[in-house]
Amino acid sequence: MDFHFSSSDDSGMEGDDEVSDESDDDEQGAQPRPMPPSRLGRYVRHAIDAMYEKRYEQPRDKLPRAAGFLSHVLDVLKTAWPDKFRENLRVSPHTFDKIVAALEKDPVFQNNSDNEQMPVEQQVAITLYRFGHDGNSAGLQQVANWSGVAKGTVGLVTRRVMTAILRPDFMGEAVHYPTPEEKEAAKHWVESHSCRAWRDGWCLVDGTLVPLFERPYWFRESYFDRKSNYSLNVQIVSLPNLQIIDFGYGYTGSTHDLTAWEATRIVQEHESVFEDDEFIWADSAYLVCLSLSPCL
């Protein structure tokens, strides 16, 4: 007996498949209905909102704050006792005023809120006091006690001052190569304090170690210096009057002065900086060369 399948059965099967596919698509495309918030969910939400409104679950005990020594330094020591002023801020009153005048117009000290910032003079003083001390004296609480502000304010004003100092326009104005007049004055000073044969050595270089407040997490051994501190190596090039004309930074405390010196700008541009027999003074950590090369 022969069996024959009609085309209608085939089309019926295909139709069933199409219906099945459409139903699957509907099930996949349908969005689940949002569940109404449960009583527990509402309770948790209300508890979180109440916590954000209060910020603190327990009452706070405010630390009594004294007036601080900052106002005395700026109002009394600055004019009557310049040497005591320098002991606190590590700069003379004249230098301090010039720094404040150069920074006070920076946008970082402009506030758009109703709460005005403290005077730029005070912010610079707090930053200088913090940078001029080491160890426990440079701790946030100690600086806050000295200045009469909160610990958070100490970090805030430090960031503001450093933001203004690191502006390219300020750095270019504060640290630059000497003018011909300044170079000649430096040569005259060297000649008057030594001999005429040495007058062409109008600048000097030396490295200094800047201690870090804690041991770095990465590559900590490279920061360990010869003085058993974790620090950074900074190269300073200055005139005899201590005016800084170039500096180099970025090397760790274990880096030799000669290696760090090679990264300074004055080494890279020595052919345009030094003329004829001019040279730079350095200690025994630097190599002595007849020509002006990176080794000195």
Task: Explain what this protein looks like in three dimensions.
The protein is an alpha+beta fold and 296 residues long. The protein has two domains: 70-171, Cyclin A, domain 1 (Orthogonal Bundle); 175-281, no CATH class. It contains 14 helices and four strands. Strands 3-2-1-4 form a four-stranded mixed β-sheet. Strand 2 (231-238) and strand 3 (244-252) form a beta hairpin. Helix 6 (120-131) packs across helix 8 (151-165).
Q: How do you describe this structure in short?
A:
This protein is an alpha+beta fold and 296 residues long. Helices cover 48% and strands 10% of the residues. It has 14 helices and four strands.
Topology:
Layout: H1 7-29, H2 39-54, H3 70-80, H4 82-89, H5 93-103, H6 120-131, H7 140-147, H8 151-165, H9 168-174, H10 180-193, E1 201-211, H11 220-223, E2 231-238, E3 244-252, H12 257-261, H13 265-268, H14 270-273, E4 279-281
Parallel strand pairs: 1-4
Antiparallel strand pairs: 1-2, 2-3
Helix pairs in contact: 3-4, 5-6, 6-8, 7-8
Number of strands: 4
Query: Averaging pLDDT over every residue, what do you get?
Result: 86
Model regions low in confidence, pLDDT < 50 over at least 5 residues = 3-19, 291-296
Strand content: 5-15%
Query: Counting H and I runs of at least 4 residues, what is the number of helices?
Result: 14
Shape: elongated
Give the CA-CA distance, first to last residue. 110 Å
Structural class, judged by helices and strands? alpha+beta
Radius of gyration (Å): 34 Å
Q: How many distinct folded domains?
A: 2
Biased composition (Low complexity): 1-10
Protein name: DDE Tnp4 domain-containing protein
Family: Belongs to the HARBI1 family.
Subcellular location: Nucleus
